[in-house]
Amino acid sequence: MSSALGGARDLARGGRLYPAVILHGGDDAARREGAFELARTLLCAAPAGERPCGGCRHCRRLAPAARGGDAAPFHPDFHLLERDLKTATSVEATRGLLREAQSAPFEARGQVFVVPSAQTLSPEAANALLKILEEPPDRAPRHFLLLAPSQYDLLPTLRSRSLPVYLGPAARLPADEVHELAASFGARARAWAGTRSPVWLLAAAEALGQAGGWEDPRAERPWCLAAAAVREAARDEACPPPLRRALLALAESLLEGTRLRVRGIPAERILEGLVARHLA
Ligand SMILES: [Zn+2]
After folding, report:
1. Quick check: 126 and 117 in contact, CB under 8 A?
2. Rounded distance, CA 42 to CA 35, Å?
3. In angstroms, rounded to a whole number, what is the distance separating the alpha carbons of residues 92 and 206?
4. What distance in angstroms lies between residue 60's CA and the mean position of ligand 1's atoms?
5. Nearest to 78, CA basis, from 102, 44, 109, 114
6. Do residues 111 and 79 touch, judged by C-beta distance below 8 A?
7. Does the pLDDT at position 68 exceed 60?
8. pTM metric for this prediction
């Protein structure tokens, strides 16, 4: 499980999860599994610390085996809105789902609504969903889990009302690419720590730029690759502990890089800015 999903699950256990969560990154199967894990946690009948228990009737009905592959599980408080058109999740289907959100839960203490292809929500469908999120729930908690390859596939208005949970890169990053980038970046970062000469900060940022693939402002892979390289450089025995802490914080920030990139800031400026902020 990704640490981000673990964090969301902890919030769900304590009844503190946002009403809307965007599960993004990973592949389709990982996002669906993440949604079921959160749904079991939200609906489970066990004491908070033990959720999801795996044994109560809610957990059992939402378990992978009970679902029989991709079939929607039967649980009256769990609703799955699959894409109904070839390329879109229609406003009609979305309104149908939202009508369920106006009724009280049948069995569990709340309701869970999952939109597995949220990137295909039509603008009207997204706005209908947004209206529901703006109304405070008057009865039991209801949670919307929106699944998409990237959180940037969703309207900014929807994103601003949701907790994004990043499940990691869609494909495994090739170890040799990470290693090569880590070696080049790590040497420059250590040179900076030893000399405090700003030229090494720029050189370190430049090394991360070698991750490539920055042309597409929404691409997450280069940021994931750069973050993985920085984490690997931090694990190097030659890395002094204060620098290690700074590198781990930098790796975390790099995963947010797309957010700045979609605002039109060139990748090299972002890399220079993040490297300077954490290392200088
Ligand atoms: Zn349970």
Report:
1. no
2. 10
3. 49
4. 7
5. 114
6. yes
7. no
8. 0.72
CA 111–ligand 1 middle distance (angstroms) = 15
CA distances from 202 to 45, 233, 263 (A): 54, 17, 22
For residue 135, name the pLDDT band (cuts at 50, 70, 90): confident
Chain position carrying tokens 């569990």: 108
pLDDT at res. 151:
87
> What single DSSP character describes residue 104?
P
> From CA 225, how far away is CA 173, in angstroms rounded?
7
- State the distance from the centre of ligand 1 to the C-alpha of 52, rounded, in angstroms: 5
Residue type for 163, please?
Answer: L
For residue 213, report the distance from its CA to the centre of ligand 1, in Å: 43
Distance CA 76, CA 88 (A): 25
The alpha carbon of 13 and the centre of ligand 1 are apart by a number of angstroms equal to: 11
What local confidence, expressed as pLDDT, does residue 67 receive? 53
Report helix angle 267-279 to 241-254, nearest 10.
Answer: 150
Ligand 1 center from residue 53 Cα (angstroms):
4
The predicted model gives 223-241 an average pLDDT of: 93
The count of other CB atoms within 10 Å of the CB of residue 95 is: 13
Peptide bond into 52 cis (omega under 30): yes
C-alpha 40 – ligand 1 centre gap (Å): 7
Ligand 1 center to 72 CA (angstroms): 18
Decide: 26 and 168 in contact? Cβ < 8 Å: yes
The pLDDT score that the predictor gives to residue 184 is 97
Dist. CA 48 → ligand 1 center (Å): 10
